[in-house]
Amino acid sequence: MKIFNTLAMFGILLTTGAGAQTTLKDACKNDFLIGAALNESEFTGQNSNAVAIIKTQFNTISPENVLKWESVHPRSGEFDFTAADRYVEFGEKNKMFIIGHNLIWHNQTPRWVFQDDQGNPLGRDALLARMREHIFTVVGRYKGKINGWDVVNEAVNEDGTLRESQWKKIIGEDYLLKAYQFAQEADPAAELYYNDFSLENLPKQNGAIALVKKLQAQGVPVAAVGLQGHYKMDWPTTNQVDETITAFSKLGIKVMITELDMDLLPAPTRNQGAEVAMNFALQAKLNPYTNGLPDAVQQKLAQRYADLFSVFVQHRDSISRVTFWGVTDADSWLNNWPVKGRTAYPLLFGRDYKPKSTFAAVIGVVHQ
Ligand code: G3I
């Protein structure tokens, strides 16, 4: 639906009765929570321009990195909650729905976690004890403060099989069940999520559906699935997104778009995923917009976001939250993945902290 061209043509930014520009959280208030992943300069208040956007536009926040294992539990027996406490304080002070990301992942988990003091691989029981200590300490610390947790992140392969992570290799498939049981025991009121990328591709989608169904059969109250939403301009199609939301909703759980951004730069590979291990050398052809985005590309980006949000609004009864993976284009991990040093334009606010035409396009769709 070419909603965006109309708005762009007249440069209309919808305003409230009081004449103030409509905000994302106001426009989405009858649909879903809307938020962003924050970095340390934002939740500590250092980046005041970004903080102004966060407070005005969003009602939920996620931690881009500071609640990951390597940050809060850097060495055996040593926890460091300095940054994580600041993140949670920011969320409480601004009455945000606070997300915890993430407890168990194959990335950003220090090597020592899987080894004994001599550097030999741990056995099942020892690693389960370490997992339990981590989850009870971290979830327990923020009991009643963090509203929902990405308990396990990215456990499924593209073909739908379980990822052969150290967690699975050492503990076995029931590492998933144990992680969710520990999280539920540590804070029975917190929502428990499964979060992954590329769930719009059927083989992986079916693998994740099987994973959630198995957890449900084992008595785990999975509250929602997180479709990360690291999208491209031509993938996934709006039909794929529509069908994916429908498929997971049939499990009786909510759907969240947890890490939404749009990679419009030339891809060095056909891979659609968000495997952080991938990295390619910087070349001019992979980084064409170092001096700003041409209007024609800006319009295509705005239309892409409008089309996606049209699908999200159609599924407003199933979607509980939409979170962007960053506040402004300058924050985005896509400036350094899969090519370090790119100039990316994946979000709704530019490097000047001003709303891009993508912002008006989204408001124009959800505001109806
Ligand atoms: O903390 C170190 C710092 O001490 C060091 O000086 C610096 C120099 O390289 O690196 C810093 O660590 C970086 C870390 O972010 C914290 O800033 C790592 O290099 C960098 O690789 C890491 O990237 C994060 C990525 O996850 C790594 O897995 C991105 O910021 C973060 O946006 C991204 O987020 C993930 C989600 O958690 C899960 N879904 C996919 C998404 C994108 O990969």
Keywords, separated by commas or semicolons:
single chain, 368 residues, alpha/beta, TIM Barrel, eight-stranded parallel β-barrel, 37% helix, binds ligand G3I
What does this entry look like structurally?
The chain is of the alpha/beta class and 368 residues long. It has one domain: Alpha-Beta Barrel (TIM Barrel). 37% of the residues lie in helices and 15% in strands. The protein is built from 13 helices and nine strands. It has helices at residues 3-10, 24-27, 40-43, 48-57, 69-72, 82-93, 124-141, 166-171, 175-186, 202-217, 238-249, 295-314, 357-366; strands at residues 33-38, 60-63, 97-104, 148-153, 191-196, 222-227, 230-232, 254-263, 319-324. Strands 1-2-3-4-5-6-8-9 form an eight-stranded parallel beta barrel, surrounded by six helices. It is globular and about 55 Å long. 44% of the residues are buried. Residues 8-13 have low confidence and may be disordered. Bound molecules: ligand G3I. The site of ligand G3I has 10 residues, from loops.
Topology:
Blueprint: H1 3-10, H2 24-27, E1 33-38, H3 40-43, H4 48-57, E2 60-63, H5 69-72, H6 82-93, E3 97-104, H7 124-141, E4 148-153, H8 166-171, H9 175-186, E5 191-196, H10 202-217, E6 222-227, E7 230-232, H11 238-249, E8 254-263, H12 295-314, E9 319-324, H13 357-366
Parallel strand pairs: 1-2, 1-9, 2-3, 3-4, 4-5, 5-6, 6-8, 7-8, 8-9
Helix pairs in contact: 1-12, 1-13, 7-9, 12-13
This protein binds ligand G3I.
